[in-house]
Amino acid sequence: MNRSRFAPTASQPEPFHALTVCGTLESLGTGVTGLDEEEAKARLLKYGYNQLVEKKRTTVLNIFFRQFKDVFVLMLIGASLISMAFGEVVDALTVGAILLLMAVVGFVQDFRGEKALEAMKKMTASTARVLRGGQEKIIPSTEVTVGDVLVIEEGDRVAADSRLIETAELRTSEAVLTGESTPVEKQTKTLEREVPVSERSNIVFYGTHVVRGRGKAVVTATGMRTEFGKIAELIQETEEAETPLQRKMNRFSKSIAKFVVGISVVIFVLYLLRLSPDGRIELAFSEALATSVSLAISAVPEGIPAITAVTLALGAKALMKRQAIIRRLSSTETLGSVTVICSDKTGTLTKGEMTVRTIYVDNRLAEVSGTGYQPEGKFTWKSSEELIDSAEDSQGSLELLLRIGALCNNAKLRHQTNPESWQVLGDPTEGALVIAAKKAGLDKESLEHQMPRVKEIPFSSDRKMMTTIHQLEEQHFVAYVKGAPEVIVENSSNVLSRGNEMPLTGEQRAMLLSITEELAGNGLRVLGMAYKRHLADYAAIDSDVEKDLTFVGFQGMIDPPRPEVIEANRRCETAGIKTVMITGDHKLTATAIAKEIGILKSGSLVLTGIELDKLGDQEFNHIASNVSVYARVSPEHKQRIVKALKENGHIVAMTGDGVNDAPAMKNADIGIAMGITGTDVTKEASHMVLADDNFATIVRAVEFGRLIFDNIRKYTRFLIACNFDELLLLTTFVLVGLPLPLLPPMILWLNLATDGGPAVALSMDPPEDDAMSRPPRNPKEGILQGMIPFIVASTVFQICGSVFVFFVETWPYVSTGVLIPESILTKARTAVFLQSVFYELTVVWNCRSEKHGFWKMSPLKNKYLLFSVAMAFTATILLPYIPALQSAFHLAPLALSDLLLAGLAGGLGLFALPEVFFRKRLWHRA
User: Per-residue pLDDT averaged across 766-780, rounded?
Assistant: First the structure.
């Protein structure tokens, strides 16, 4: 077998960004003319296709059967089978329907990891231009291999991670990878080994795109080995975290299961011992088993999972109307327990649109209002807050400054489909200068018509300046220059002051540089503006045109916060929710934005990715709750941040729009993606998508999530309070040797009829007050936190009512120890049955609030509850009077006095629960 003409070296001691161009080519065994076809094919076999590799998919059946592993579900399956064996077909079918509903709800996830990978594929280039044997060829991007030389230019999407070997004014947008909105200037110089990914200016990355210039780069990594591929692998490897609701329900179901099984076994044994002395062993066993199983079915609140599913589905539908699209139903509840929101800066907290905020001209600072690409705003002198008339500003200095920014510029401002919406074509920084000029009434196209450009000296990283030459009149030209502040000041010999050109002194230079430092310290990106007049022959102009300039001023710009974010963050603070900014941007910029929004408070910490790397896990976990801003971070950092916060007991939400956010979002308790600016990868990895990219929508969703959980607690309290009374009632009767007051059919009717409709109606109960005025729930609290006094009181009064009715109906026989006749026993059981139903239909009204009794809650505000109670009451009261149902349920018609007795005892549910139980509000502890 022939040896390849270009073969990669055996080892590579340094990362490619730390190697020279020659060193990179030598290390990869290639050259500036690229690979030949034979070598390219050999390497494609060695390294594989340039695509994201998917792990083994989870099958549809696996996902479906995974829904039946929950303890509740397993109990229901067993109860359903036993019920079917004893002829309780109706109950078995009902339980089966509940199981099916739960399985469908659990199936909502539907291969989210797989979809995220498919979305990533759509973002990558479909074709690429490479040099093969010195000839430029267009090939499928999947066939690009290590050692290929890519040819890239403006508009191209980069096909693989590559080390640049040649550049010409090259800038790339890496927002989807690093989160930074500003295009990154690229060059070929060697960098230090420890430089983070976001600052590797001699590398172009897979999935990013070129916004300006052109270049050539040698491919260093393809597919899953790229930075983009590493993120894809993180998404696949990140385990799906259980939501708080799932954790609570699992703990709750295990506790209920142990208690119910234990009591049911006791009842079975005791009841069997009571019946077996009669010699009817088989009949005794069957009757005892039927009773204990019926009680178990009744005691297990199987309606909770189904009603929870319905509640979350209705909540998700309501949230969609509020611009929040829920991708996983359990996330609806998770929103209500969030304690920390980890938010990406660019496009989430900010608009993702550079905006000129501050101007320095004529020794004065001016503030510019308005944000984003909307060319509307005003200019105000910062010292006096005097509104500036741009047409009559101090000798036209401000207008000249804005004109330089608009004309020394290649960006364009265009209307989008919506006439009120604007779009920048080109560099966002240059776009900000065009918009600032238009706010003052200076239209770039009109200016270019008045002062046509005749020559351009493009920006370069060496000069750090850009110059355009404009014709004022025949043989009269002017040069407009913009660039790095220190370079503009250094190359200026004069300064424009009140319309006059004055010599620029050393003292003035120092002052101007201090002003730029002050503006940069406020997070602004600063550009200097200057000009040079009286140019006679533009064709003969050389680099000297950028010397002996007349300095005009500075323009400072920033990607500003969304207008509504400040108020949204304030509401989060009121609700006890901490907002944390996590960004790939500079520390100064991130700090400035965080202060403006109100995220960064006194005593809060700001950490960079490099500083975070120096901290051990234990040390970082200790301070994680005090950090408000993270700057210059990578995807791995974001996952570590989320993990540390969760280990500190927080319920974490992670918002974002770039690919770099996806792994941390998936690892968070709830990931929130931006619907407009967010990538498909981010959306598919999220639990919720914001249709309007509005941070305030998160706050509204959190509020709604809290209301949903309040309603979940309402029907949980109702079901638990009403499901255990029969269990304890029968246990008591068995222990004292009395006949059972309720038979299995009656127990099942109580379980199915009264628990269903009213509980569902509670899930639609309107809110009591502003849910955002209280702190988040303690994540460690169980689903029954604060309910025990209510449940105990309800159970005691229910049992007392049932015992009272039974003894009133059977007292002549019970008091004398005479065997109760079957007809009297049937009548007593009917009365107890009706009393139990009435009690549950009255106590439900006291389950609507955790602060007040029923008398302070208008019943008309929940018409669903009124209707469901009326239906259950009507259906139950008719059972003893329909012959076909009398025998099925072992009931007997009752006289009016017996009905009144059952009604009065059942009415205890309205008055048996003192208001003191509501006032404790134990569930609101932070």
Answer: 74
What is the DSSP track for 231-257?
A: HHHHHHHSPPPPPHHHHHHHHHHHHHH
Write out the H or E segment, with its range, that includes residue 607.
Answer: strand 605-608
Query: What is each CA distance from 555 to 84, 393, 462, 607, in whole angstroms?
Result: 79, 16, 21, 28
Does residue 758 contact residue 869 with C-beta atoms inside 8 Å? yes
- Span 325-350+563-701: which CATH code? 3.40.50.1000
In the 8-state DSSP scheme, what is residue 190?
-
User: Kind and range of the H or E element at 610?
Assistant: helix 609-613
Task: Name the residue with higher pLDDT: 280 or 147.
Answer: 147
β-sheet bridge partners, residue 529? 482, 553
What six digits make up the tokens of 551? 């300095």
Active site residues: 344
Q: Is the pTM of this model over 0.70?
A: no
Q: In CATH, what number does 16-54+117-237 get?
A: 2.70.150.10
CA distance 90 to 615: 61
CA 505, distance to chain mean position in Å, is: 54
Cβ-contact 174, 184 below 8 angstroms: yes
Where would I find the H helices in 480-564? 485-490, 506-521
pLDDT the model gives residue 529: 97
Torsion of the alpha carbons at 833, 837, 842 and 845, rounded to the nearest 10 = 150
Identity at 40, one-letter amino acid code: A
Report the amino acid identity of residue 803: V
396-556 in CATH: which number?
Answer: 3.40.1110.10
Domain spans, the chain: 16-54+117-237, 60-108, 325-350+563-701, 396-556, 724-924
Nearest-angstrom CA–CA distance, 592 and 926:
30
Q: Name 495's bridge partners.
A: 502, 551
Check: CB of residue 776 under 8 Å from CB of residue 244.
no
Closest CA to 67 of 239, 246, 256, 244: 246
pLDDT of residue 734: 75
CA-closest candidate to residue 544, choices 604, 447, 479: 479
DSSP state of 739: P
Q: Residue holding tokens 């920048």?
A: 424
Which residues fall within 8 angstroms of residue 800, CB to CB, at 6 or more apart? Answer: 908
Q: How far apart are CA 897 and CA 920, in angstroms?
A: 39
Q: What is the mean pLDDT of residues 826-834?
A: 93
Question: Cβ neighbours of residue 540 under 8 Å, at least 6 residues apart?
Answer: none
pLDDT at 138: 84
**pLDDT at position 60, please?**
54
Q: Which residue has the tokens 């790397």?
A: 613
Class of the CATH domain delimited by 724-924: mainly alpha
Buried b (16+ CB within 10 A) or exposed e, 338-375: bbbbbbbbbbbbbbbbbbbbbbbbbebbbebebbbbbb
Give residue-wise pLDDT tens across range 859-888. 788 888 899 899 889 988 998 998 877 877
Note the helical H segments in 155-280.
Answer: 175-178, 227-237, 244-275
| Amino acid identity at 855 | W
CA 883 from chain center: how many Å? Answer: 58
Residue with tokens 């397993």: 74
Number of Cβ within a 10 Å radius of residue 96:
15
Q: Which helix H or strand E contains 874, and what residues bound it? A: helix 863-878
Query: What is the Rg, in whole angstroms, of the alpha carbon atoms belonging to the chain?
Result: 37
Question: Is the predicted pLDDT of residue 824 greater than 50, yes or no?
Answer: yes
CB 355 within 8 A of CB 432: yes
Backbone angles phi, psi at 756, to 5 degrees: -75, -75
Query: CA 211 to CA 183: how far, in whole Å?
Result: 7
Bridging pattern class, strands 492-497 and 549-558: parallel
How wide is the angle at C-alpha 820 spanned by C-alphas 817 and 823, nearest 5°?
165
The string of pLDDT tens digits covering residues 366-398 is 999 987 788 889 999 887 667 776 545 545 789
Query: How large is the greatest C-alpha to C-alpha distance in the chain, in angstroms?
Result: 128
